[in-house]
Amino acid sequence: MTLPFSTIKDVSLQELIYEGPNTLVYKSWQSAENRAVLVKILKPQKTGGDAERIKRFQREGKAMARLDHPNIVDIYDAGAQENYHYLILEFVHGGNVRQLLESAGKVPLAVMLPLARQILLALQAAHQEQITHRDIKPANILIDHEGQVKLTDFGLARPADTTEVTQPGTILGTLAYLAPEQITGGAPDGRADIFAFGCVMYEMLSGSKAFEGGNVSATLHRILNENPEDIRTLLPELPEALATFTERCLAKDPADRWSSVKEALLALDNANLPEELATTAPAYRQFFQTHLPVAEPFSPASENSLGADSRSPNRRKGIAIAAILFMLFAIFWFNRDHQQNLPDNSASADSLSIEAEHTLALADSSQNASSPDSSLIIRTNIKPQSRITEEVTAKRSGEENQPSAPANIQAELPDTILTAPLANKPASLTISHDAWATVFINGDSLATTGEETTIDLPPGQHLLRFSHTKFPPHLLELNLASGESRSVEWYFAAQIGHLWLEVHPWAEVYIDDRYRDTTPLSRPLAINSGTRVLELRHPQLQYYRENLSVIPGDTIRVKVSLKPLEDTNQ
To answer: Residue 113: which domain range?
Structure first.
């Protein structure tokens, strides 16, 4: 489908990565924030159900706007442009559980447990806002290359404080993960999400879908009337406590499932399961880096590369090549018509083409950008010919009657053209950094080793970014000259402090109202310097809250015993 625009505000649509019957999804770049984003666009359709589709799409945006959790995809903006409704969403560099299972077959228990807990934490955050997702499935559970879960696609989510959009009796959701009450036309609540989560968990553990039949009727029949094959038959080594936990998630009657996600989380934590991998462990991250799609370079270099009438990268390249050929043809035609004003020219065609190439490159330079009108840029295209003319004239200085190049053309000849070939000499940049930081140049990740990396870059403006999942990124703009050698350094460790926590019995750790980890911690948390708010949360105990003054390089130790809910003495 062709869009009549290629940008939305400061967001450049770059690549169409999905087209469905109702939506388009673009990989995009938001220049103001210097980040990759995902743009989801609702196709305008002249059908009787168009108003319902728009309402459901808008409801997705409103539902996501109410959710702020590290395991839920962020929404940055929503609106409409030229009758196209859109959502601008967080872009997750990685894949989803479906892709993970296609590559790995199934997920090892030590890896699956941290995944399951993150999915449940995302659902708990949604349910606390009275939002039922209603479409939990592997494709809607995104995972980045660090193994962090991001729940997405709230298109079918139903906030409890809104009226139902779907007509009574309509079945919404993905068939193999529907709870029985969704099939029979009941009013699903959060326990329907628990059922779908149980289906995903069963599939991650065993590599097989819990209820899939040979066709739609067979699948519906199995969900309503049959229990899935005993998971311990497929996975004999599975601990009995985890098998029982999964079976309860998949109970036909909602009353027989876990009453809430909070209860399910508590049961999972109390199941005395084998030790899981910490999400910071190299083996944990390696599993996802092995089995999820390799991250492709993505940067503002291709910003505005999506034309309003083009979705194909090859087609966009063709348009660019055609434009360059047209400009070269214009140079040739203009020069041919003005040969009578120029002296005899013995320069080779190769020389002309090389000089023309340099002139075209200069058309985007700061010199031409400051010209008062576009005609100066157009006249630049004849300067390669005038330079050749000047050189030939100098060689024939003994010929008194030899005409010279027009004075106005000679006056316009910039020195840059004479030295243009030297401007391509690369600059050298040495980057010193924390060994565990990710370094980006113009949005492209560098393959760094150790704590120092040296690379060659073309002269000009570059954006350097140091990134790590635990800290805000550090941005640095560089303007490198031809042949220049430059050194820069950034160490996150010099900007942060550390926090050691000992919490009885356990708690989710929030810093400045954002989830960081769950105790017991395998190592101290790195936190930004300054005044920070620590909050410890447990579903059945009082929350603990404290302001921390963090000094770079210092380690703060906090020991807390959480109090029962009935104990009001602080």
So the answer is: 93-300
Task: Establish whether 153 is a catalytic residue.
Answer: no
| Secondary structure in 3-state letters for 279-343 | CCCHHHHHHHHHHCCCCCCCCHHHCCCCCCCCCCHHHHHHHHHHHHHHHHHHHHHHHHHCHHHCC
Spatial distance between the Cα atoms of 459 and 461, rounded to a whole number of angstroms? 7
Residue 118, SS3 per DSSP: helix
What is the model's pTM?
0.54
* Number of continuous H segments (helices) and E segments (strands) in the chain: 17, 25
CATH number of the domain at 69, please.
Answer: 3.30.200.20
- Domain-located, residue 419: no
Closest CA to 391 of 413, 376, 375: 413
CA 270 to chain centre: 34
pLDDT band (50, 70, 90) for residue 494: low
Assess whether pLDDT exceeds 80 at residue 114: yes
Let me know whether 341 and 328 are in one domain. Answer: yes
Residues 153 and 277 in one domain: yes
Q: Chain-centre distance of CA 122, in angstroms?
A: 18
413 within a domain of the structure (yes/no): no
Which residue in this structure is represented by tokens 């004479």? 418
| Same domain? 293 vs 362 | no
Q: How far apart (Å, rounded) are the C-alpha atoms in residues 138 and 250?
A: 16
Q: What's the whole-number mean pLDDT along residues 545-558? A: 83
Average pLDDT over residues 26-37: 93
In a domain, 271, yes or no: yes
CA dist., res. 568 & res. 570, Å (int): 6
Q: What is the number of residues in the chain?
A: 570
Cis bond leading into 228, ω under 30°? Answer: no
User: Among 53-62, 124-133, 314-323, 461-470, where is mean pLDDT lowest?
Assistant: 314-323
Q: Give yes or no: residues 72 and 170 share one domain.
A: no
CB 228 within 8 A of CB 202: yes
Q: How many domains does the chain have?
A: 5
pLDDT higher than 90, residue 290: yes
Residue 382 belongs to a domain: yes
Same structural domain, 48 and 136: no
What would the pLDDT profile of 293-338 be if each residue is shown by its tens digit?
A: 886 666 665 444 454 443 444 444 555 565 566 666 555 555 555 4
Same domain, 106 and 151: yes
* Domain termination residue (choose one: 57, 91, 125): 91
What CATH number is attached to the domain comprising 516? 2.60.40.1120
Q: Which residues of 60-98 are buried (b: 16+ CB within 10 A; e: fewer)?
A: bbebbebbebbbbbbbbbbeeeeebbbbbbbbbebbbbe
Are residues 281 and 355 both part of a single domain?
no
Contact present, 185 and 168 (Cβ < 8 Å): yes
Cβ neighbours, 10 Å, residue 356: 20
Catalytic one among 50, 135, 230, 512? 135
Helix (H) or strand (E) segment spanning residue 12: strand 11-19
Please identify, among 268, 300, 332, the residue that sits at the C-terminal boundary of a domain: 300
The answer to whether residues 293 and 174 belong to one domain is yes
d(Cα 31, Cα 557) in Å, to the nearest integer?
Answer: 40
